[in-house]
UniProtKB/TrEMBL annotation:
Bacterial bifunctional deaminase-reductase C-terminal domain boundaries: 4-230
Top-rank lineage group of the source organism: Bacteria
Pathway connected to this protein: Cofactor biosynthesis; riboflavin biosynthesis
Protein name in the entry: 5-amino-6-(5-phosphoribosylamino)uracil reductase
GO molecular function: 5-amino-6-(5-phosphoribosylamino)uracil reductase activity
Single GO biological process annotation from the record: riboflavin biosynthetic process
Keyword entries, A-Z: NADP, Oxidoreductase
Native source organism of the sequence: Pediococcus parvulus
Family matches, as Pfam families: RibD_C (PF01872)
Gene3D superfamilies registered for this protein in UniProt: Dihydrofolate Reductase, subunit A
Length: 242
């Protein structure tokens, strides 16, 4: 298996939360730094796509709607659906069961325009794959009953020529990749705010069936500040590339 270099780039509260009322409490600076580092032309990271978990996509782009599926759609050809794109970036959506109600095959995130690419498993229905084909949304199938993340990354490298990919949350997706040795670097934008909520997700979340709570250590690679915001970089010590 061959895979792209993976860096996990996230903004957190001071206590490691990735969503919640703390958002915005420290002004625009942390969000601007976060976007600059990984999405602007002169940013630190240059990548060909960013990975997001299904909940993150529903929260930000598809809003928990149900896709309009044709249960009588003719059988689609087996295997992956790879088509050309005009974009230089992919939004790589981890959607094992095929749940997300995409309205378009393009996604706009601030000034970034990206091609939507779905990562499915054998659990996704024929009707959902037909829906994606109808919308010109490419997909890859990685795993039969559950996600084979290594195979997905191999396909991103070999079918879509991705050399560097951002792991972009949420916490469940991040930790499942780290536990499998599939993350090389952590890039953390530490927002100088907190809200103390115990109900919001954190940077890394173990979930039964997807990951374990096995400890992982990190090696500090860099610390920089911008105003009150801190940017931390760590190498992940359990990566399968070492
Ligand atoms: N601060 C930041 O920088 C930042 C960045 C991104 C997201 N967020 C926030 O994070 C929150 C969501 O995080 P979250 O941890 O709850 O969810 P998440 O990681 O976005 O999504 C979890 C879902 O993704 C799928 N999934 C993830 N890893 C998988 C694996 N290894 N194998 C199979 N399926 C996998 C599953 O989908 P199914 O349930 O369909 O099986 C799982 O339930 C949102 O509030 C979002 O706004 C913050």
């Amino acid at each position: 298996m061959d895979r792209p270099y993976i860096f996990c780039h996230m903004a957190t509260s001071l206590n490691g939360k990735i969503s919640g009322p703390y958002h915005g409490a420290a002004g625009p600076e942390p969000g601007q730094l976060f976007y600059h580092l990984a999405f602007e032309k002169n940013g630190y990271y240059q990548h060909q796509g960013w990975l997001s978990g299904r909940t993150t996509t529903d929260d930000n782009f598809t809003f928990y709607k149900k896709p309009d599926l044709d249960q009588n759609a003719p059988q689609v050809p087996a295997g992956d659906f790879v088509i050309p794109t005009k974009f230089d970036k992919y939004y790589i959506s981890i959607d094992p069961h095929g749940r997300l109600a995409w309205q378009s095959n393009e996604l706009v995130y601030q000034t970034t325009h990206a091609q939507v690419l779905e990562v499915l498993t054998g659990q996704a229905s024929n009707a959902y794959k037909a829906f994606l084909r109808h919308k010109n949304i490419p997909y890859i199938i990685s795993g039969k009953d559950k996600l084979d993340a290594k195979l997905a990354l191999d396909k991103l490298k070999n079918l879509f020529h991705m050399e560097t990919v951002m792991l972009g949350g949420g916490g469940v997706l991040n930790w499942s990749f780290i536990q499998q040795g599939l993350c090389d670097e952590i890039s953390l934008v530490l927002t100088p705010a907190a809200d103390g909520s115990s109900k919001t997700p954190s940077l890394f979340e173990a979930r039964e069936g997807l990951s374990k709570a096995t400890p992982v250590s990190f090696t500090l690679k860099g610390v920089e500040t911008k105003g009150n915001t801190v940017w931390l970089r760590y190498l992940v010590n359990n990566t399968d590339k070492q």
